[in-house]
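Following up on my earlier thread - several people asked me to post the actual chain instead of describing it. Fair enough. Here it is, all 117 residues.
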Amino acid sequence: MNQPTTNSGFDFNQPTIISLLYLGSFVTGISGLIGIVLAHVWQGENGEDWAASHFTYLITTFWVGFAASIIAGVLSIVLIGLLLFPVIMIWVGVRSVMSLIKAQRQEPMPDPKTLLF
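Reply from S.P.:
Thanks for posting it. Predicted structure:
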């Protein structure tokens, strides 16, 4: 009656931590900066292929989201940017959750360089 043990808990691996920091930035604002620093530092340290795909995906998520937020901020002068901020938040949120789910399964991101989901 020996059944294999399954890990039913939450795994705080490196991509998971970065994803949680990105999601936390919606509340705190600063945790996303901590997440991008950790992503760049851990990208060179981790030798696992599945994690490397997450780092690429999460780094792309941060920098594209950051650039889009700057553009939306400039366009807020003519009120168009105000419509872009919720879209950017949804985009970053969905990408962070997708990475979080796959990181819990220790699965690689299918196409880490994509700008879509």
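Helices lie at 14-28, 31-45, 49-75, 81-104. That should answer part of your original question.
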